[in-house]
Design the sequence.
């Protein structure tokens, strides 16, 4: 099932990429081949790969087994990964307006409280101390331009 | 200036106090990365890379390469003590290493691994020193057509030999090439696939892709596994050295593993993992006690560990002399070279001799540092295995995010890293190898440039790609690489039809 899904995804990607190729001017003065030729070759390769994946999926057979294991994954683990991914995205969105120290502290506290099964204060202290120490280490020592946001420092 | 003078000058560079410090730091960080299960050298280097921007190129590359071979050195520890390889190439070590630990010989397993790694690492650096200049001279004969064929061969080899499915490897490679075409076209100056976003005109930053695919996706996988349950850590029992009998049984596997590892390392595709599988299979085939393999045979640790570390030295040969990475970590290292404005390839040895020889010679020092660090301090490194995953993984995620943000202070980079992290997670779940994508992303622009240059020289005639022996050889090798997995999957049917035909003839 995975191969067929990947084959279909590859065809969708090919359609999007093909649309992108149409936006590139075909030839430019001083460039005999033009900027479209290489992407067109890649598009051809992607279509071949998509067909190979569909054939591979058809040959691999028992769809029911794959569907069952996928359903089991969705029921058990997907929620954890999706939650972490969503939390990370929220952290990235908040990083600039809220600032490095506060957003990192909140982000880490949330994750650690969920995944660390020891004493809760350890998660909170680790998260806050990392955000403060890393801010001074990276922003002051390594001169990485970290956003200050709403924090007073 | 003679090559020997450059080599000696390289030693002076490598032994500068600042570089010695960074060899040491790189080895320690590499060992830590190797010891941490689930965080491989590629992820470790991708995480550290943004933080090295302030260093001199030679010093930064010495640090990153120290991390690479340090991770290989340290990867065996988790294989032996928790039956979980620190990186893919330590998988074979788990078979007998963990059994040795269960039998109370963890100390001997760690010692033979360290000794094998020292011998193999030193041999491969000597071989690299000897082979580098002749190969670089050979590389000078490459024109655009030869360069295109070489890059195609390299990508085909990695795509076909990495992972279980040729189609998935190829998909990964094509996606990498697609990402590489984003940005301003170098020849015509036209923007491609930028969707009007000005920040994409320079293309997608390699580091953003690397951090997303390696660091973020690995953390997601690790947190998922952590949610399912935890591994048991075995304590180190027995003295940290070999008995005379164990040494007698180990030295030939180390020598054989070293040779296999180095020569496999030079060839693109499969990384050090294939070298360790070959070494393990050879030791099992040569042993009188074949059935005892998997129950704690020291030969099953000595050979693969030597092969693993020798392959690392082998990987440097095509990377430094031809600018061709042979696997995931060398692809990240190629990215690091380019970020520091150092172009690996034939001209590296004449344009940046102090960088390349300083780097190569630092590896001699690094191997000794690792040996000294690993045996007496192994108990300290092992403490890291007790660091709760629930605290460690979120910290890695935060460091990865700082790394991405530090490139340009761009929110778009963070968003892209998130997207690549999620895609990387899906890739790992459905068995798509990441190495071909990273390699294609790095080599894609070079591939296109050499293709278009060759076609311009020939006036649009593609015969130029089969006009020289070198180019034809690489194209044939690329086809062979793609054919190998196909022939392998149909081998039973092929042999069956061949034998039935020959039986018909005899009848």
Sequence:
């Amino acid at each position: 099932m995975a191969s067929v899904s990947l084959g279909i995804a590859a065809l969708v990607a090919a359609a999007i990429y093909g649309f992108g190729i149409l936006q590139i001017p075909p030839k430019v003065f001083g460039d005999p081949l033009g900027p479209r030729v290489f992407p067109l070759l890649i598009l051809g390769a992607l279509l071949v790969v998509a067909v190979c994946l569909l054939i591979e999926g058809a040959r691999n057979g028992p769809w029911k087994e794959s569907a069952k294991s996928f359903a089991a994954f969705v029921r058990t683990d997907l929620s954890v990964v999706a939650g972490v991914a969503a939390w990370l995205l929220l952290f990235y969105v908040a990083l600039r307006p809220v600032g490095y120290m506060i957003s990192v502290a909140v982000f880490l506290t949330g994750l650690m409280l969920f995944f660390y099964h020891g004493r809760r204060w350890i998660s909170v202290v680790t998260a806050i101390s990392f955000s403060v120490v890393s801010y001074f280490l990276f922003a002051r020592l390594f001169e990485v331009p970290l956003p200050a946001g709403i924090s007073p420092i | 200036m003679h090559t020997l003078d450059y080599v000696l000058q390289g030693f002076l560079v490598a032994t500068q106090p600042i570089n010695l410090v960074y060899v040491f730091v790189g080895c320690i960080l590499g060992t830590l990365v190797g010891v941490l299960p689930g965080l491989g050298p590629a992820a470790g280097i991708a995480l550290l890379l943004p933080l090295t921007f302030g260093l001199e190129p030679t010093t930064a590359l010495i640090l990153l390469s120290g991390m690479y071979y340090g991770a290989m050195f340290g990867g065996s520890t988790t294989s032996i003590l928790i039956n979980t390889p620190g990186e893919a190439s330590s998988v074979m070590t788990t078979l007998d290493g963990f059994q040795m630990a269960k039998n109370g010989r963890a100390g001997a397993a760690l010692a033979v691994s360290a000794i094998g790694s020292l011998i193999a690492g030193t041999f491969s650096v000597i071989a690299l020193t000897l082979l580098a200049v002749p190969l670089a001279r050979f590389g000078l004969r490459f024109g655009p057509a030869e360069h295109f064929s070489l890059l195609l061969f390299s990508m085909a080899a990695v795509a076909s030999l990495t992972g279980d499915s040729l189609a998935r490897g190829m998909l990964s490679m094509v996606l990498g090439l697609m990402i590489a075409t984003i940005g301003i076209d170098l020849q015509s100056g036209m923007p491609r696939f930028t969707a009007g976003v000005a920040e994409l005109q320079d293309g997608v930053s390699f580091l953003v892709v690397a951090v997303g695919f390696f660091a973020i996706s690995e953390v997601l996988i690790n947190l998922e596994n952590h949610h399912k349950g935890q591994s048991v850590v075995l304590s180190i029992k027995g003295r940290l050295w070999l008995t005379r009998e164990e040494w007698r049984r180990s030295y030939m596997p180390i020598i054989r593993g070293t040779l296999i590892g180095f020569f496999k390392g030079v060839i693109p595709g499969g990384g050090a993992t294939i070298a360790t599988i070959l070494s393990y299979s050879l030791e099992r085939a040569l042993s009188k006690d074949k059935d005892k393999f998997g129950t704690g045979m020291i030969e099953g640790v000595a050979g693969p560990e030597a092969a693993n570390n020798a392959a690392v030295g082998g990987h440097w040969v095509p990377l430094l002399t031809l600018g061709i990475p042979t696997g995931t970590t060398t692809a990240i290292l190629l990215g690091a070279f380019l970020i520091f404005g150092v172009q690996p390839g034939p001209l590296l040895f004449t344009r940046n001799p102090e960088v390349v020889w300083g780097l190569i010679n630092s590896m001699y020092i690094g191997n000794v540092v690792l040996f000294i660090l690993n045996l007496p301090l192994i108990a300290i490194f092992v403490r890291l295995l007790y660091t709760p995953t629930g605290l460690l993984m979120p910290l890695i995620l935060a460091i990865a995010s700082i790394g991405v943000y530090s490139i340009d202070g761009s929110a778009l980079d963070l968003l892209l890293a998130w997207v690549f992290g999620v895609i990387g997670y899906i890739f790992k779940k459905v068995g798509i190898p990441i190495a071909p994508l990273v390699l294609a992303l790095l080599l894609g622009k070079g591939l296109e440039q050499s293709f278009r240059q060759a076609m311009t020289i020939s006036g649009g005639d593609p015969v130029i790609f089969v006009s020289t022996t070198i180019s034809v050889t690489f194209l044939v090798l690329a086809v062979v690489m793609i054919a190998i997995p196909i022939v392998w999957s149909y081998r039973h049917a092929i042999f069956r039809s061949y034998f039935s035909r020959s039986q018909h003839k005899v009848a």
The longest helix of chain B spans residues 106-139. The beta strands of chain B are 183-184, 191-192.
